[in-house]
Amino acid sequence: MVIKIGTRGSRLALSQTNIVKQLIEEKINLETEINIIDSKGDHDQKSRLTTFGSQGIFTGELESQLIQGSIDIAVHSLKDLPVLNTPNLELIAFIKRHSAGDSLLIKKEHLISRNPLKVDKYLKFGTGSPRRQSQFLEFEPSAIPIDIRGNVETRIGLLQFTFIDALIMATAVFERLDLTLPKNIEKIDLPVDYFPPTPGQGVIVIQTKIGDFGKLEELNDLETQIAVNAEREVLPNSGGGCELSLGVYIHKNQTNWVCHATKTYNTWNPSQLPNLSRFHFESDNLETLSNTLGNYINKPENVTSDIKSDLSRRRIILASSSSTAQQFSKLLEAHGAETFRMPIFDYKTDLTQLNNSLLVDQWYNSEWLIISSQQSKEFVKSLVKIYPHTVRIACIGQSTAKALRSIDMPVHLVANGNMMSMQILLKEARAIHPGQVIYLRGLNYTSQPSEDAHSFAVYSTITRHLELPIQPTEIVAFSTRSAKAILEQLGSNCTFKWVAIGPTTGKFLADLGQDVIISQKPTPEGVYEALTAS
Questions:
Q1: Interatomic CA distance for residues 290 and 297, integer angstroms
Q2: 3-class state of residue 533 by DSSP
Q3: Terminal-to-terminal C-alpha distance of the chain
Q4: N or C end of the chain: smaller count of CB under 10 Å?
Q5: CATH second-level architecture of 315-344+464-533?
Q6: CA 443, 389, 366: angle at the middle one, nearest 5?
């Protein structure tokens, strides 16, 4: 038996069909032949996609031939199919998803930096997708969208030989086609969490008549099917189709389902900046995630003013670990900002110091224990367990105090800000409660809590390899060391503006000529006040 596979005739469609053909022949052990069928969308390469009014312009003729029996199965890009199944037809297999996101193809002379992504002002970028236009305009408001149509080769030719500076295309194209880009063009994969795709992008599906070729179910990738069905189920109630600027991406990490989405609340108008709203949600229950996504997508346009707020359109990097940055992220996002947490350092506790007799002697003779970072927590926990001793504890920062209290260590003094604040506070406290001071710190340090403190390095700090997925509007630097690491790896153009926690970090950045505002309070509220005052 030979299975007749129906497909469009473009190079990309044929490549996708050959992927399916190979799977059928190798895994199902059936012979196949390919039948090329032109679609309405293939015949009309000039009209805007929005003028067709709905999905299905690339798939309708294939479905018609399938119903008539001219072909046995049809191979589609899932994103081209209407959400509601055509009567008597079914999607029998979802092939494991290729990359779901988009890529930016850009002439090298218009690319300022890849990491973070920064492009020339007034960049002329080509795409026929309102979603891609909206998302990229929100990223670079000065850019100029150029509506284009055509197959992959046609669009790349327009980029190479015309006034267009850049294109946006599905990343999966480059996984399915062996494309050689012109030497003057760079390909940059856009972060899928910031530029979520149209629902179902990156997925090839096999369509059959209901009840036919059930053996093809063996090719189905269940996780892909579950994720993209959840993405697409919001479309029927949202006016979905080519005319809607909607991006949705759902995937599963190690423990939870994660969703990123964007939507424009205003009717798309390329002469105006998009009023783009973003959605990020994570849950171990896909039904909960889907319901929350549906509520977001179906909010009426007249609630836009309630959703946008004073930090909208701000993309803020929090240069700290997730635990430290969580409260900052929560407050800033409540005011409309998009936040991205970027840990700068990894930490390694040096438990061999528990065998350091000098440290143990000083520990037993001390009345005060000074901690400048929560990274000392694990060492302190082991120290107290092996060598029980009662001391007064002073630490820098509320997050460090919280970490110590989480292991049942009492905290008597909390200095806000930096070591200078600790020095002043400790001097006053020791006038009332004198005694020897032991300071547990990291391998690299610049100052002591007191001149007579006995200090020991109990953890080491390793700078991570840093990457910024997008051009942030601000980076919040929690220390001079963090700011230095970022500048060394990412350069002085990594952000438009810095927010420094405290005057020391602020002075360091200002002395390097960086545009910086100083948060006078090391709290989420302090950063918010600094951002809104700038």
A1: 10
A2: helix
A3: 71
A4: N
A5: 3-Layer(aba) Sandwich (3.40)
A6: 60
Helix (H, G, I), strand (E, B) or coil at 244: coil
Q: Phi/psi at 477 (nearest 5 deg)?
A: -100, 120
**What number of other Cβ atoms are within 10 A of residue 14's Cβ?**
18
Domain boundaries, the chain: 102-189, 315-344+464-533, 349-461
Give how far Cα 305 sits from Cα of 261, 264, 313, 515, 524, Å.
Answer: 19, 13, 14, 30, 24
Q: Order of strands, edge to edge, in the sheet holding 102-107? A: 144-146, 124-126, 166-170, 102-107, 185-189
Q: Which fold has domain 349-461?
A: Rossmann fold (3.40.50)
pLDDT digits (tens, 9 = 90+) for 426-471: 999 999 999 999 999 998 776 899 999 999 999 998 899 988 867 7
Residue 189: both structure tokens together: 């994969």
Q: Fold identical between 102-189 and 315-344+464-533?
A: no
> Minimal CA–CA distance to 260: which of 272, 236, 277?
277
Q: How confident is the model at residue 277 (pLDDT cuts 50, 70, 90)?
A: confident
Count of alpha carbons within 13 Å of 254, Cβ hemisphere only? Answer: 0
Residue 271: Cβ within 10 Å count: 5
Q: Give me the residue label for tokens 């190979």.
A: 22
Write out the E strands in 321-396. 338-341, 345-349, 368-371, 392-396
pTM for the structure as a whole: 0.59
Sequence-distant (6+) residues with CB within 8 A of 205 are: 75, 76, 77, 78, 81, 91, 93, 94, 95
The dihedrals phi and psi of 265, each to the nearest 5 degrees, come to -85, -25
Residue type at position 36: I
DSSP secondary structure of 447-474: --SSTT-EEEEEEEEEEPPP--SS--SE
Can you tell me the distance from the alpha carbon of 365 to that of 325, in angstroms, rounded to the nearest whole number? 36
Q: Which CATH architecture has domain 102-189?
A: 3-Layer(aba) Sandwich (3.40)
| Residues forming beta bridges with residue 252, ordered by sequence position | 257
Q: Given its phi and psi angles, is residue 428 left (phi above 0), alpha (psi -120 to 50 degrees) or beta?
A: alpha
Give per-residue pLDDT as tens, 27-67.
999 999 999 997 554 444 444 444 444 455 568 889 999 99
